[in-house]
Design goal:
Layout lengths: L1 H27 L7 H23 L10 H24 L2
Helix pairs in contact: 1-2, 1-3, 2-3
């Protein structure tokens, strides 16, 4: 049971990273932003990217026209959130 929950969390975070990567790729393509797939992708990833974008702005990091929030979100999800959640699950699901 414990490994099933941990694997589900691992897959969920990997899917989030994949969606963020897909959003980056789609932003470079000439796709209409009113497209239903782009809209769905935007709605799924924006709750993750918006707080990071605000934090970068509040820290006064001057990024110009480049949005680094997808990169920061991917790094945070992969190297901070995922290990933290998995370790907490190992502790509480004994």
């Amino acid at each position: 049971m414990r490994f099933l929950v941990i694997r589900a969390v691992d897959i969920f975070i990997s899917v989030l990273n994949l969606l963020i990567l897909l959003r980056i790729v789609m932003s470079f393509a000439r796709i209409d932003h009113r497209n239903k797939y782009f809209t769905m992708l935007y709605q799924l990833t924006e709750p993750i990217l918006e707080p990071i974008r605000k934090l970068i702005y509040k820290l006064g990091v001057e990024t110009g026209m480049i949005d680094f929030s997808p990169l920061v979100a991917t790094l945070l999800l992969s190297y901070l959130v995922k290990p933290l959640i998995i370790n907490l699950l190992y502790m509480f699901l004994r």
